[in-house]
Every structure is written in C-alpha cells, then in structure tokens.
Amino acid sequence: MSAEAFEQYAKALKAGQKFYKSAVDAGENPYPPVLDELVDETVVAGNRDLGLVNVPAELIAGTKSAGRAAALAGNFMPLLPAGSEFSTKWISLCDAHLSDKGIRDPVKCYEYMGRFYVQEGNKRVSVLLSYSAPGIPAMVTRMIPAPSEDPEVKIYYEFMEFYNRAGLYGVEFSAPGCYDRLQALLGMDPDHVWTEAERSSFSAGFAHFKTALAKAAGEKEQVNPSDALLVWLQLFPFSDIKDKTAAELSKSLTAIWPDLVGHPSETIEVRTAPDEKEKGLVSKLLSIGHSDHIQAAFLYGFDPEDSAWTRDHERGRQYLLDALGDKLTAECYRSYDQNYFELMEAAVEDGAKLLFATMPSMVDASRRVAALHKDVRVLVCALSLPYTGVRMYYSRTYETKFITGAIAGAMAEGNRIGYIANYPIFGVPASINAFALGARMTNPRVKVKLLWSCLKGNPVREFMQDGITVISNRDSVNSKQPHWALEWGVYSIEGEGTLRPLAYPVWNWGPMYERIVRSLLDGTWDDSAAGKAVNYWWGMDNGVLDVKLSRALPDGVYSMARMLKKGLAAGTIDPFLTRIVDQAGKVRFDGEGETSFTPEERMNMEWLCDNVEGHIPGYEELLPQSQGLVRLLGLNREELPPEKAEAQL
Fold first, then answer.
1. CA atoms within 13 A on the CB side of 485
2. Which of these, 403, 424, 568, lies nearest to 472 by C-alpha position?
3. Which of 43, 86, 401, 453 is the most exposed place for a label (fewest CB within 10 A)?
C-alpha cells in the first residue's frame, strides 16, 4: 500500500475524531444517522428504483442500517485507529482510488426526503469524501413517504415530479410551488423534460451561484440557495450567472440580500403618514440620503395628454418643481414599448438618484435598477408588493369611496346602487366595502350591486336594465372628455338616459412627492427599514386625495359630504368603525372600541360586506388584457401558475 494512502487515512482519522469530539461536546449524535432508526415503515408509501445516480456529496446524510456505523463519524470520516481491519480496507480502497483502476463499483443507497443513506459501500464513500469528491455514483432506491399535510412532504412530492422532468438532485425549496416557478423562469413549459445539455448548463451555473452566495453571506443569515436563485431569476437572466465572476456575482447578491432573506408576509411595513422625525445636524450629515440638491426622474408609460393616470403624476412633478425650486431637478422619461429597464438606466446615466416609477408594471425593472445602483432610490406606484430594494407608494382610495358611497346612498332610488370595480387586486375590496358602508350610513336598506370592468359584459347597460339609477364607475377620465365627464366618478341616470355627475375622486400626488424629496434633502429619510418592504399608503389627511362635489347635489347631501371630507382629513372619521358583517354572515367588526382594522388588514381584505351583491372574480374569469396586472398585484397572486419567461438554458 502506498504512503499517500496511509497519510490520507491519518488525515481522515483526524477529521473524524474532531467531528466526534465537537458533536459529543454539543450533546449531539457523533455517528452517521441511521435511516432504519429514523423512519417508521408505516409512514412509507413504497420504494422505487432510480438506477445509477451521481449523488451530490452534500446530500449523503447517513447509513441505511446500524452495521459498522460506529466506525465512522457523522461526517463519514473514520474513527478506528490505524492497524485495525477497517483501516486496512479503507487504505486499500484509497490505493485503488489513487491508481488508474480507481473506485469503479457504485455504492448502494436509499434516498428518503432528498437525503441519501448508504446501504453498501460506506468505506468507498468515506474515501471519496476525504478527497472532497463533489458526487458519488450510486445505485439508488427511493423510499417514498406517505402523502400527508406536512409541508415538507408536500414539497417533496413536488420535487419528485421535478426530478422526473429534470433528473436533478440538490434543488430544494422551502415553499410549495417553487419547482414550477423555476421551470417557468428558465423559459420551460410545465411538462418540459430537460435535455442533457440543459441539465449540464443549469448544474454548472447553479454550482457557481452557490459559491458566490456563500461568499456574499459571510457572517450574515444563511439563505437557501434554491430560494435565492428564484429571487435572482426574477431580476436577472440565468446567463448573467455564468458570465459574472464569483466576486461580481457575490456583489450583486449582496445588493439584493434583504429580498433573499425576507419573508413577504412578515416584512411589509405599511406607512400611512410621512416620517416627521427630526434629526440633529450630525445625524443629517451622516445620513445616506442627506443632500443639498436632488436629481429625480419620473418614469411614464403613456403620454400625459393621452392618460389621466400619467397626467395626475405629471401634475405632481410640476407641483414638486414649484415647491422646491433650485433644490430639485425632475425630468420625465417616457417609454412606449414597455422597455422600462433601459429607460431607467438612461435616467441613472443622466445622473438621477431618485426614480419615481409611476406604473405597477415597472416594478421588475425598478428592482433590477435598484440592485445595480445602490446609491439610487426607487419608488413604484403600487400597493402591497413585498420587495425590500424599492419602496411602494399609493393612496387610500377607500376614503374617497366612503364619501361617494354616502352620496350614492342618499341619492339612490329603489335602494340599489351599481358599483363597477376595476381589478381584484390588493386595496380594491377595502374600497368596495367602504363604499358599501358609506351607502348604508345614508340608506340602511341599500344594496350595492358589484360588477367588474375586467370581465366580459357591459356593466352600465346591465345596471340600467336592472333599474339601477346611481352608479360608481371609473375613477379617472381621459383627456378626450370634458372636466365633468360622463360615466366616471359617481353619477345618476335620469330620464331617457341623461347622466348627471355627482362626485369624483382626485389624486394630488404633489404633496407626497414633496414630502419624500424633502426627507432626502433634510436627512430624515428612514434607512432603518433595511430588510423590510416599505409601502407608503397615504390618504386625505396627507393631502394626497380629495373628492370634488357637484354643486348640483341637494344642499343637505352636499353639506354631509363636506363634513365627511373634513372628518377624514382630520383623522376623526374611520369608515370601518361600525358593525360589519361579511357576505357569509361572519362578524368582521363588532362596532365597539376606538379602532377597527389595522392598515395591513384594510390593505389585505379579501371579503365583501353583506350589503354587496356580487363576488371577487378568479383569475380564469378575467379578460386576457387584465390578467397581467392581477398576476402582479392580485389578491391570490401566489396561487397562480407561473408565467413562462424566455428560454434561459
């Protein structure tokens, strides 16, 4: 036997003894786990032969049965001294590994829940692991757990389907649905069977990715590599992994680290008012955001002349320029082909350090730009998106709906009102419910018939056929209509179909833009929210919303609406501070106490009040042109099948 083999055994023995001592000191099992002792046969659904598999070394967890397990430490390094029968055989195998002959015979393993337990060939495994072999050839038998509601078992069943397509181990997610999402992000159909070239390309890239991820993690919280890859692929193409050096890849991963470790349901911080916290001079000078001048960019998807939505934001930009004068530069950038990333990169190239992306569909490009330029702050006009690299901003439209609902209830004939909602996305049910509660306040017997503009049909025609004469319709008017346009806001239908406007909501983005920019100028921008997704959700008390009232309203109704406006602006009126029962008869709030729902509860409402007739539509009911926004902002977006990207491998 060669001296090198003897020397290798001595090194392996030392590693085994070190592992053994550390485990004993920590009160842990120092030997390889034994599958027969871990798994009760009654929870096994059956076995399946997988044939020859190149088992990833990091997934070898233990042995199938006790046998000679005591000869090995938990890291599969030897524990028996040189001169023992075990050591002689180990060294002989090591000699074979070092020779041209090599260790050719595959070991035998059982796989259970993605981990491998050696049945035959423990010493072969030990020798190969001592040389840090990345994989070990093995004849594998899969032990299939019985189906259950255990989340780990559910994810494992998804893995088995993934394995049938991809033939890969080592891709392990922590939540259901991720294997299908990975397949989609790689540009594959759900049932696509991977080619050998695709397998090889992915494996090489993923290995490089894991190395860079470990380097980026350092002493920080560890991240599941597969989960991290999903986040990465939402921002960058897979080809970037292979094109970047480990150092470049680590840097980009560090830039999006909060998103890698974040848990969306726990990290969204809803801010319903600006941060008025004062800072001293030293704090201001040390603040990352402190500056004497801000160069901002407003990103538009439409021309202000053609889009009321864009026009409102353009008014906000002009308001901002008037308010801050030479302290601010704020240019607007337009894209008509939805190439938002290039548009934002152009703004950054021009020197912009603050980007306002005025459409929810800009969020992916915004996240990518924020990850590439850590000195640039990016805000997206959207609600309830759990991304830490950018901030969201939106308005509490349910406040204006409460006022227009009260007007509609007072003006309705026949105790029925029509309500046309746009999309089943976060915040919309709160607006529907606030409208229904406002209508009930002025007419206790009123019913609100709910229809959706994102579904087939003509809601206004259906309302008219149903004898409904007061309708809440679209909130924005386009430039081709006069100031008091027809079929938007709240209006009544009179006589032979004459439309009479009653009230309409108004967005005033300027005050919000001014407060945000001033926080950067004076150093009060809050950088302490690292690791959290900040969603600004401001309302009438911040001057972001208003309701314009028709002077044709009866005096009493007009006065009531003005009082409601003042109360909401002062924060003394809460639309939900009343007894509320949902359509299923469940009491959602008993009407007692000083407060009703938290901002998060209002934003995440998925139920409707009992005086609403209608339902929240599912994704499959939507018109095709509406599905994109609902996929991004929809109430049940996490449950939707993933959308296939361009081919990546």
1. 17
2. 403
3. 43
The span from the CA of 533 to the CA of 385, in Å, is 8
Give dist(CA 98, CA 117) in Å, integer: 25
Mean pLDDT for the chain? Answer: 90
- Regarding predicted confidence, which is higher, 33 or 413? 33
Q: Is the pLDDT of residue 422 over 80?
A: yes
Q: What are phi and psi of 497, to 5 degrees?
A: 115, 10
- Asked if residues 269 and 529 have their Cβ atoms less than 8 Å apart, the reply is yes
Phi, psi (degrees; rounded to nearest 5) at 146: -65, 145
| Type and span of the H or E element at 507 | strand 498-507
Q: Tell me the per-residue pLDDT of 293-344, one tens digit each, with 9 for 90 and over.
A: 999 999 999 999 888 899 999 999 999 999 998 999 999 999 888 899 999 9
pLDDT tens per residue across span 430-442: 999 999 999 999 9
pLDDT of residue 145: 94
Tell me if 139 sits within 8 A of 109, measured CB to CB: yes
* Under 8 Å between Cβ of 175 and 155: yes
Residue pair 368/341 in contact (Cβ under 8 Å)? The answer is: yes
pTM (2 d.p.): 0.85
- Gyration radius of the chain over CA positions: 31
**Rounded to whole angstroms, how far apart are CA atoms 486 and 479?**
12
Cβ atoms of residues 429 and 450 within 8 Å:
no
H or E segment at 369? helix 363-372
Of 369, 379, 441, 457, the residue nearest 406 (C-alpha): 441
Residue 507: partners with Cβ closer than 8 Å, 6 or more residues away: 312, 395, 544, 545
- Of 125-129, 257-261, 499-503, 594-598, give the range with the top mean pLDDT: 125-129
Give buried/exposed letters for 402-413 (b at 16+ CB in 10 A, else e). Answer: bbbbbbbbbbbe
Is residue 186 pLDDT above 70, yes or no?
Answer: yes
Q: What is the pLDDT of residues 20-70, one digit of tens each?
A: 999 999 999 999 999 999 998 778 999 999 999 999 999 999 999 987 668
Q: Strands (DSSP E) along 382-486, which ranges?
A: 391-395, 416-421, 447-452, 470-472
| DSSP letters for 2-20 | -HHHHHHHHHHHHHHHHHH
Q: Tell me if 169 sits within 8 A of 52, measured CB to CB.
A: no
Joined together, the tokens standing for residue 468 give 């409904």
Distances (CA, A) of 238 to 174, 191, 372: 21, 20, 16
Structure tokens at 482: 């006069």
Reading the block at residue 615, the tokens are: 């339902």
Angle between the N-to-C axes of helices 196-217 and 225-235, in degrees from 0 to 180, rounded to the nearest 10? 100
